[in-house]
Amino acid sequence: MLNHKGTCILETARLILRPFTVNDIEDMYYNWACDEEVTRYLTWKEHKDINRTSLAVALWVKSYNEKEFYNWVIQDKKNKKIMGSICLFSVDNYNGNCEVGYCLGKEFWNKGIMYEALIRVIDFAFCEIGFERISARRHLGNLASGRVMKKCKFIYEGTLRNVIKDKEGNLVDCKYYSILKSDYIKDKLLLHNK
Ligand SMILES: CC(C)(COP(=O)(O)OP(=O)(O)OC[C@H]1O[C@@H](n2cnc3c(N)ncnc32)[C@H](O)[C@@H]1OP(=O)(O)O)[C@@H](O)C(=O)NCCC(=O)NCCS
User: Fold this and answer.
1) Name one GO cellular component term (predicted).
2) What is the pLDDT of residues 174-185, one digit of tens each?
């Protein structure tokens, strides 16, 4: 049985992961949502105006009432800039699994930010909620995302053909990965006992 807690505030060395608020709308729009390079491999199109961002955030803010809704904004602890988001979705209570998705503004790429955020969310998902498995998928061209998954010890499981519509509405192949609680806990214990 999963112990759902909703989008709790999580911390890492450099980051705070917290629920979005309506005060994040403008920064989200300018820092990542309006950028077509950020959405290059995503299923949603860059926002053409701030109203689109406003609608998305309003929906999330409403959804925070639900204990099974997990969507964090990633914020720099020091300068308080918001840089991107990370979420758990497709929650399957019966089988104890979910999927993870994430994105970050270009200005913040290649500084290990998503690695740091993902590691924290994995720990929360396994050790606090009790998921047994987290999966992730990426567009074949999205090598940086594949690298983040690998750094976090996700295992590649295979490529599904024509499985998801890209942001233009065309079906594309995706590479699928997963990480298991059993493996994660084993690694954590090994590290602890070193
Ligand atoms: C994918 C994404 C989240 C990565 O975030 P990030 O904070 O830059 O990731 P990290 O810095 O933790 O790690 C990125 C790794 O990819 C590597 N990398 C970056 N661009 C790469 C490329 N074109 N080819 C191969 N590796 C690449 C980096 O060198 C780094 O690896 P390293 O730590 O071994 O040097 C970010 O690029 C992003 O938000 N992209 C747009 C949205 C998106 O694609 N989301 C994922 C959908 S599946």
Assistant:
1) ribosome
2) 999 999 999 999
Q: List the one residue out of 169, 160, 116 whose CA is nearest residue 139.
A: 160
Phi, psi of 144 (to 5 degrees): -65, -40
What domains, with CATH codes, occur in the chain?
Answer: 10-193 (3.40.630.30)
Q: Is 6 left (phi over 0), alpha (psi -120 to 50) or beta?
A: left
CB distance 46 to 39 below 8 Å: yes
Q: Give me ligand 1 centre to Cα 147, in Å.
A: 6
Encode pLDDT of 48-81 as tens digits: 999 999 999 999 999 999 999 999 999 999 999 9
Report which protein residue has its CA nearest ligand 1's atom 18: 144
Q: Is 164 in the pocket of ligand 1 (CB under 6 A)?
A: no
